[in-house]
Amino acid sequence: MISFSAKIFKIGVNPYVAPPAFALKEIFKQANKSKGSIPVRGELNGFLFIQTLVKFSGKWRLYLNTPMRKEAGIDVGDVAEVKMEFDPRIRKVAVHPKLILAFEKNKKAKQKFEQLPPSRQKEILRYIGNLKSEESVDKNVKKAISFLIGKERFVGRDKP
After folding, report:
1. Looking at the structure, do residues 74 and 30 belong to the same domain, yes or no?
2. DSSP conformation letters of 11-37
3. Which of 27, 31, 80, 116 could cross-link with 120 by S-S, CB 3.0 to 4.6 Å?
4. 72-76, 128-132, 156-160, range with greatest mean pLDDT
């Protein structure tokens, strides 16, 4: 496990820490890559987390979502104690059964979905998968299909 301290910054609405060079070097070695997103796991001020290390605007960042910061009792401007390592486990997001049925009925939407970057696919799958009511699932599956075939926005995104 790699340990470091880092100040929490914010870019747009996203709090993050910038892992130091020695930590990145070790993560790249563990992951056997230094490009694309890298799944990591670790501790933030002693609280466990699972997250993804990403490069944005030329800098590697470990984004700290609200639950991570709340559990660790820290926020933007604070210094975080971070321990992390490469997480080799496969991270697969389940496809909601109603979305599967919608893709069976609309091959164009399924094809467009498969052409999206993996991060955008996960965003759609997680959004639909986390909905509580069947009514919300039905409504948002329809919106997702309309988004994929270029008819409307979905989850704050313009048409693909």
Report:
1. yes
2. ETTEEEE---HHHHHHHHHHHT-SSS-
3. 116
4. 72-76
Q: Are 66 and 11 part of one and the same domain?
A: yes
Same domain, 82 and 12: yes
In DSSP terms, 105 is beta-bridged to none
d(CA 20, CA 22): 6
Mean local confidence (pLDDT), 1-20: 95
Judged against a pLDDT cut of 80, whether residue 23 lies above it is answered with: yes
Same domain, 82 and 105: no
Nearest in space to 139 (alpha carbons), one of 150, 149, 154, 151: 154
Domain range enclosing 102: 97-148
Mean pLDDT of all residues in 36-54: 95
The half-sphere exposure of 13 on its side-chain side, counting CA atoms within 13 A, is 1
Global pTM reads 0.66
Same domain, 6 and 80: yes
Supply 56's token pair: 């944005």
Token pair in block for residue 41? 């796991």
Over residues 82-133, the pLDDT tens digits come to: 999 999 998 888 899 999 999 999 999 999 999 988 878 888 998 898 888 9
Q: How many domains does the chain have?
A: 2
81, 101: one domain: no
